[in-house]
Amino acid sequence: MHWRIYEGISQDLAPNYAWLLKRQNVKNCFIEGLHIASEKYPNATRNEWETFAYTRFYLGDKFYQHPEFERLLAIFPVKKAITVFYNKHKGDELLKTKYTTRGWLGIEGRATLITE
User: Fold this and answer.
1) Could you count the other beta carbons within 10 Å of the beta carbon of residue 56?
2) What is the pTM assigned to this prediction?
3) Residue 61 CB partners (closer than 8 Å, separation 6+)
4) Residue 91 has what DSSP assignment?
5) 62 — pLDDT class (breaks 50, 70, 90)
6) What is the DSSP code (8-state) at residue 5?
7) Eight-state DSSP code of residue 16
8) How confident is the prediction for the chain on average, in pLDDT?
């Protein structure tokens, strides 16, 4: 079942990484996210853990350390906190850069389209 998630993430992110992003790296990072979520939020559901693991690809692997996200967790269940935080910060490249561990996807940098 998770292979569909890995494939979807790979297809979505691949153009940003000049198609160098390996599916195995996506799988490993997703599984790592499940592990982190299950340790940090043991009372959360499997679906919430999957949402956490998925969100790391779009907001940064350490997005959960953001003070605003931590504040939201005090108010909402994990999935709702992620949804609120994601909706506010999706596309925020500065936040993603700040909360992404360099090389966490197994490659460095992003592709840039050069046009003349």
Assistant:
1) 22
2) 0.79
3) 29, 33, 99, 100, 101, 104
4) T
5) very high
6) H
7) G
8) 84
